Amino acid sequence: MTPVELSRTVLHAVRRAVDVGELRVSVPERVVVGPPGPGGRGDYATNVALQLARPAGQPAQHVAQVLRRHLVACDGIDDVSVTGPGFLNISLRDSAGGSGRLVADVLRCGPSYGHVEQGSGRGVQPHRLHCPCDVRAVVVTDVVARLLQAQGHDAVRVSCDSPPPPEWASLLGVRVEAFGPCNGSSAQADIRPVPVPAPRCPEILALGRDAGRWALLHPAGHDRVRISDEHLVQRESNPLFRVRYAHARTRALRRNAADLGFRPEPGPLSPTDSAADATDTTAARPLLTALADHPRVLAQAAAHRAPDRLARHLVTVADAVLPLLPAVLPLGEEKPSAAHRARLALAEAAGTVLAGGLSLLGIDAPDHL
Fold this sequence. Notes:
This protein has helices at about 5-20, 50-55, 60-70, 95-110, 135-150, 165-170, 200-205, 210-215, 240-260, 275-305, 305-320, 340-360; strands at about 45, 75-85, 85-90, 130, 155-160, 180, 190. It is an alpha/beta fold and about 375 residues long. The two termini are about 35 Å apart. Mean pLDDT is about 85; it is low at about 275-280. It catalyses: tRNA(Arg) + L-arginine + ATP = L-arginyl-tRNA(Arg) + AMP + diphosphate.
C-alpha cells in the first residue's frame, strides 16, 4: 500500500465513521500521512483525529479510537495504535505480493515513475516561473520547471530579471526563456531562495555541473548554500556521492547478474515460508517505503517549489538500498534463485528512482563511478 493509497484508506475510514453516526463532522477533502514522529511506531502516522476532535466535539483520543476500529479491518493494514494526544500509528501488513507489485510498477514506468501524464496537472500551479538573476535562483527555477512538467504541466516558462551570464548555461545547464521584471500575473510564481553572494559564484561554477547544481539544490530555499570541495569528494560524508554510488552499484549488479545468466523478477525477497522471509522483508521495508513515497515527494516538491525535498529523498533511497546490495547476487557455488531475482528487481527499482530523480535535478547518473 502506497502513502497515497493509505491516505485514501484513512479518508474512507473517516467517511464510514460519519455514515454510521459515530462522528458528526464534515469529511475532509484529504488526509495527510507521513513517517511517525518521536514516540510513534509503525510505518505511517496521521494526526487526522486531532484535526477532527474540535469539530466533532469529542476528545482526540476518542476520535482516534473510533477511526482505529475502522482501519484495522482494512486490507493491507496489520495494526493501528494510538499514541500521544491522538496520533494514529499505522503498521502495514507485510506482503510479498504488495512489494512485488510496487517494484514491478517502478520497473514498468522506468525513470518516469511518479510522473503525471502531460496536460493533466492538478491544482493552481503557475505556468510562468520568474526569478532574480542569481545563480541559485536560476538553477532552482530551472528544476522547479522540470518538476512541474513531470507533474503534467506542459506550458511552463522560465523568466529572469535580466539575462544570466552565458557560462551559467554552458557550465550549469540552465535555460531561461524570457527576461524582464515580474509583471505580477496570477499565473506566475516568483522564486527567491537565499541568494549566493556574487563573489562566490565562481566557486559554484568551479564545482562543475553536477556538484554545483547539488550544492545549490540540496539545502532548503531558506538555508544558505555551503560551498566547498566537500561536494566533490568520493566518500560517505558526501550525500551526492552516496546517491550516485548507490545508482552505479545497482547498475553493476545488473551487469553481474546478466553474466550469471539471470534477470530481475519482482517477487518475494526470500524463499517462500522460510524463516528469513520476515527478516528480509523487514530489512527492505525502509526502501520499499521510500520507493512508494516517491510520487508524493515529486508532487510536493513541485507544489511547494522545493527541489530540496527531492534531493533529500534521493539520499533516503540511497541510504536504504546500499545495505541490501550485498545479498543480491548468489555467493560461491550458490545457484540464482527466485529470491535473488526479486532482490535484483528491488535494487533495479531503487536505481531507476535514483536515475529519474537525478535527471529531474539536472544531474548525471553514471553507470560507472
